[in-house]
Write a structure and sequence with these properties.
Length: 403
């Protein structure tokens, strides 16, 4: 065995070594104070479940109550051990009041190796995988010399875009090839494709509120939505890129109403026209008042599959209705002096330049909404920025023609 430097020997003297294995691995009980803790996403309900399980196992005589060791790294010139895999277990042990953590220590490693192993291990932590991958992939890129010229998203664009040359980023041909090689190497180590990392992880990280990303969790099952999922965040990144205030408004209602991804996309599209938070809140209130966000949920204690099917169908109808409504609202009606609306002899609405098409157009939206969605004229006027008098006058004229 190679001679160990004095600093490593001093650090190992502070742990209770149980066994030493090939591959520079040491099994030991490590004091919590010697573990380098970081602000890494953890699933708090899972931490509490683990803590309770550890308490029970400790009563059965299992030291610390752990069923498996935590994997730690030993980095030269660092007086603590960074966690490679086991953030939930360390948090749970801290909650139980344990002073030591049963660990496997990987000696003489570096931060590049630690980050690679963390990203590889993240696949087994479904609930927190998304937030962790974003943080660790970005940290891995920051350790390269090219990070001063391009960000991590740009690096992956260079790899996935066949037309990219790097010239617009002031990269030399050598730097361009080196960056692509780095991406290929890391994707191979992480068992992830470059396109998946860019499209589903990094592009979202660029345009979504970091706080929402940190809180993102995979759905635990059932109808409850404790936090937005990565798929919810992807819709926000596409519909409300960089608009953090509106993203949080949509996130709040999505969690409150346990909206699925399609419904969240529809709500995001509805508020995307808002010019302020107040307008966005008004649109959300309108959707709630119309009952368009109240989906019928099956009762979990009943096993009547006919009822489940009926409830599912009703929910899908609600989603379709909301989606159609958003499509109409996105027409963005803008009244002009050149195209005043007036009824023709058949009771339909035309402009001075001729009849409107049969499909819903921007000019017909104000008249379609009251019938399809029971919206008040004042609500239509606010959402579409049309004078209330114009809406009321048009509706009165239409009623008169029908009489």
């Amino acid at each position: 065995m190679a001679e160990r430097p004095p600093r490593l020997l001093e650090l190992l003297d502070r742990v209770r070594i149980v066994n030493e294995r090939e591959g520079n691995l040491v099994e030991a009980f490590v004091p919590l104070s010697l573990i380098y803790t970081e602000d890494v996403a953890v699933d708090q309900p899972h931490v509490k479940e683990l803590a309770e399980s550890m308490r029970e196992k400790a009563k059965e005589g299992i030291p610390t109550g752990q069923l498996s060791p935590v994997l730690l790294g030993q980095v030269p010139d660092l007086d603590q051990f960074p966690i490679i895999d086991g953030f939930h277990r360390v948090a749970a042990l801290d909650e139980t009041g344990e002073k030591e953590v049963f660990s496997t220590i990987k000696l003489n490693t570096d931060w590049d190796d630690i980050l690679d192993l963390r990203i590889l291990a993240a696949a087994s932590h479904r609930s927190t995988r998304f937030a962790r991958l974003i943080e660790w992939i970005e940290n891995s890129w920051k350790r390269t010399s090219w990070s001063k010229k391009v960000n991590v998203s740009q690096a992956f664009v260079l790899r996935v875009s066949p037309k990219s040359t790097g010239s617009r980023m002031d990269l030399t041909p050598e730097e361009f090839e080196d960056i692509k090689s780095w991406v290929d190497k890391k994707c191979d180590q992480w068992h992830l494709s470059a396109w998946h990392i860019y499209a589903n992880i990094l592009r979202v990280a660029q345009t979504v509120d970091p706080e929402l990303i940190q809180k993102a969790r995979e759905r635990r099952g059932g109808w409850a939505l404790e936090a937005l999922t990565p798929l919810h965040l992807k819709e926000l990144s596409l519909t409300l890129p960089g608009r953090y205030e509106l993203q949080n408004i949509v996130a709040d209602v999505a969690i409150e109403k346990a909206l699925n991804v399609a419904a969240t996309r529809a709500v995001a599209e509805a508020v995307s026209k808002a010019g302020s938070e107040e307008e966005a809140q008004y649109i959300i209130k309108s959707l709630k008042d119309q009952g368009l966000l109240d989906f019928t949920k099956p009762k979990p204690e009943k096993r009547d599959y006919d009822e489940l099917l009926e409830n599912f169908f009703q929910a899908q109808v609600k989603i379709a209705q909301l989606t159609i409504r958003i499509a109409l609202l996105k027409g963005g009606y803008k009244p002009t002096t050149e195209h005043p609306l007036r009824p023709n002899p058949n009771g339909n609405w035309i402009s001075v330049k001729g009849s409107l098409p049969s499909t819903p157009s921007a000019d017909r939206v104000p008249l379609i909404l009251p019938k399809m969605f029971d919206l008040e004229p004042s609500t239509i006027a606010t959402i579409l920025s049309i004078p209330l008098d114009d809406i009321q006058g048009a509706l009165r004229s239409l009623d008169n023609r029908k009489e």
